[in-house]
Amino acid sequence: MLNIILMIMKHNILRNHGFRACALMKSLRILMVFGAIAMFSTVSGNDATQGDNSFPVHVLVRDANTGESVLTARIEAVNNRAAATLQDDESYIISLTSPNEILRIVAIGYGTREVPLRGRERLVVDLFPDIFTDNYREIESFKGPVRKSFMPLAYGETRDVDHPSILTIDDVIKTRLGGNVRSVNRSGVAGMGSSMFIRGFNSLNMNAQPLIIVDGVIWNSLYDINSIHAGYFGNTLADLDLNDVESISVIKDGTSIYGSKGANGVILIKTRRGEGVVTQIEFNAYGGITTQPESLPVMGGDQFRIYASELLGTTNIHRSEYSQYGFLMTDPTRPGYNRFHNNTNWDNEVYRTGLTHSYHVSVNGGDNMALYALSVGYTGVEGVVRDTRMERLTTRFNADFDLSELFTLGLNVSFSNVDRELFDDGVVFHTSPTYLAMIKSPFLNPYTFTSAGVQSNDHEDSDEFGISNPSAVMDRSLNVNKHYRFSLGAKPTFYISPRLQLSTHFDYSLDKVKETYFRPILGVADIDLPGYGVSENMFMSQQMRNVAIFDDTRLTYRNTFDHVHRIDAMAGWRFLSNYYELDYGEGHNSGTDQRRNLYGDMEFRFIDGINDRIRSIANYANVEYSFDNRYFVTAAVSMDASSRFGKETEGGFQMLGHSWGMFPSLNAAWLVSSEEFMAGADFIDRLKFRAGYGISGNDDIAAFSRDSYLISTPYMNRANGLIIGNIANTSIQWETTSKATFGFDAILLNDRVALSAGIFHHNTKDLLGLKELPEVAGQGYYWQNGGELQNQGFDFSANVKVINNSNFQWELGASIGHYRNEIVSLPDGDYTTTIYGAEILTSVGNPAGLFYGYKTNGVFATEAEALAAGLLMTNSQGHTYLFGAGDVHFEDVDGDGFITANDKQIIGDPNPDFYGSFNTRFGYKNFTLDAFFTYSVGNDVYNHLRASLESGSDFSNQSTAMLTRWRAEGQQTNQPRAYYGDPMGNSRFSDRWIEDGSFLKLKSIKLNYKVPVQSNWLGGLDVWVAANNLWTMTDYLGRDPEVSVGNGVLYQGIDAGLLPSTKSFFVGVKMNL
């Protein structure tokens, strides 16, 4: 049968898959040899179910609260199929083959327990109610569910995803697995998600996000796609409805089995499947509101008038010309007076109370031959920014068919459609309504006035200061994003023998993203396009299509010898193909706001696109060995090739004309609690030490980096030209990360206390970075490998069942994580990267992402003080000026008397000292209260938004902090003088804008009431209320200290003014039919 299967696969592969056929057939030959050996072992090995069950054990199972016997328990042994029987004394008896066996006890309404015998013949086991965390439930792994006792890897896991008021999995990971994953919120826009990092950073310039795997399929994250909407980040995890998710697992080490994709760790998501033959229907519905973000204190109308008048005096405009500025008018009878004498709260023009409503229905059931789970969900969100929304429609069908004793089939079908109406978010001067609401003059009005001084319904245009009208931007702009995703997967499994099986997991997925953007004429200031001209309005369109083909074929062998030796081995190959197509068009100056398409007569037209096929293949093997349920060893290796790799790489090896990387790992664990010498340590339920070393890679290399190509560029107003886009690098390859880890997992005091801790040391070589080219190359940079990064730290988590009685239960959980990275080497020396005006230092001997700028010593209060310091500055025109009273006192590091780039130094570190989460659960009769907190300590934040609101250099409205600006000789203040254009660079990037971003947040809280029901048709009814983002403790002056402006390492800790997360309140119902 195996030969027939392999012949069919060979025919299809040779016909369809071209370049990888030879390598694949070599892998299949290995599988054939492996299968033959395994089948022989199946015949000759000792069957775990044979032999004498000569070790009888008596087990008394009790309720941990009442002490009463639990008579409905199911007791099984890990390596023995013997069944336990209930005795007259209410104890169970089970006959085993080994005194070191582990018993697993399961009972409805209780959490699972696993108990090592340690040679004991009598056991008393207490079970806690299932309101508490189940410390013994299985965890998802590469090969499927695995008992935690036998897992030699560092992991985190949660099945507590039943919090429907949370839109995306990112937030579940943040609150439930905060010490395992550092999850940093991107934005308060619904479904935007978080940037996630497992045990720090293992890259500098490549994607540092973990690998996402959903139901065994590598998930296309679409991180590489840049949106045409400012401040928007695509988040494919928003396509998943949390009601469809069963569990989330985090694998922190031992990821070599994922080869060149596993360096950043792995997040495994398992969706719900059919559970029993009885049909079950579940309905969830909720609704709620989201409050407006708290307004930053900015100047009122009169305050800003004084500031603007003062600033006008620092310009080159003569006083005789001041009359042209209407805001200086004091005569109410003059025409135009009404336009300049308002006190507008621009936040009221931009924000509103957001509304959310969501509905989800699922059906699961089946019979002895098939189980299924079908669900449909809809979520609608009206954002807190006016005229923004998100609508998500999801449907999922999972099924499992037992077609015969030798063949099973798993099926997964899903579809999601997410529509968004967005806005330009963050510090975007011309088109971000949220930013414009802060900087727009409060003495102006959103609407025009008639000659009679009556306000009309027509929008005002941009003002004399070149600042757009946020109300007009909201009403007349177009920001649309649509994302469709379809996935179809099948997993046939052939049971060649009781211990040998062949499976293949095939999946097809289609992602389509369509974006449309329009910037109007009316209400928006003209934008100067250097080298082209003035843009009055603009239309952009971007469409992306990605087709992914995934296949994972593996041969698996399992056997137990002499009741103590257990082998679990697999060999397989994994193939992933992404066909990626992107089309982009841009045009300016349509002449009217009624034309919102790309017309042929538009100016500065620009057409571009990408057409790429990225293919990767991996041959892998994994062998797990355990002895007597005490010692566990796992060895794995993966050989990876990718179309992204150059053909002349220095690492790895060459085979069949392609470059291959080799990624081995070895992990081991010692289950100390199963040792007979621990028989007297009744307070230790489980104690496991684990250690491992492995090598994995990061293959997220920019598309076409190994090739030379041309790109489109605008030419002569309406034409397109071609320029060099990249210079080939045939030696480009993956980044290589080695990981050494050690840790322990423990459960103590009769399942009351669960602890997990680990230390790690990572070393990444062959870092990918941009190398500067000489000007004659016609291209500024190209990608190359070089450099080394080290990352080390620890993580720790604890869970305690504090109180358990008949009416009241209380549980506490906490986690903490710490990492510290250091750049060991760089191929071309230290360098800085400018992001939102901040200089990010990449320097040998220092952590990644450091802020590099000027340190300050306050503001010169008097001219004498400034003269005594004697600091000078030379501007870009070569003129030298002396710092005076009201200027910032910058540190002169090199002591030459001039403030220059040589005086820059490290001024902040966005990496936290510690981060994590803690949670608590209270149960009282039918009520359950859950609260989740997250925290971060010691991380610095660059407050780019505050730097803009306190620059004192233009006619933008300013923070009320500028009311204390220096205005007179001798004034003691920390705010420098206002001066148009900021000739002395007082607002330059310095430690003035670096703040402590430490915080403690009450991220979510939920109160659930389980309604007692006695009905033939209603199986359960829960009513709940919840709130998110209720409280934050921080010294940070911005709106939210939890900030990230990108998925990359260098984009962390920068507050670019994106919409913050705000308070939200929900009420919902859950019904089981």
From TrEMBL:
Residues 168-266 form the TonB-dependent receptor plug domain. InterPro entries: Beta-barrel_TonB_sf, Plug_dom, Plug_dom_sf, TonB-dep_OMP_SusC/RagA, TonB-dep_rcpt-like. Keywords: Cell outer membrane, Membrane, Transmembrane, Transmembrane beta strand, Transport. It is found in: Cell outer membrane. Signal peptide: none annotated. PROSITE patterns: TONB_DEPENDENT_REC_3. Gene3D superfamilies: TonB-dependent receptor, beta-barrel domain (2.40.170.20), TonB-dependent receptor, plug domain (2.170.130.10). One of its GO terms (cellular component) is cell outer membrane. It is a multi-pass membrane protein. Transmembrane segments: none annotated. The keyword Transport applies. Belongs to the TonB-dependent receptor family. This is TonB-linked SusC/RagA family outer membrane protein. It comes from Natronoflexus pectinivorans.
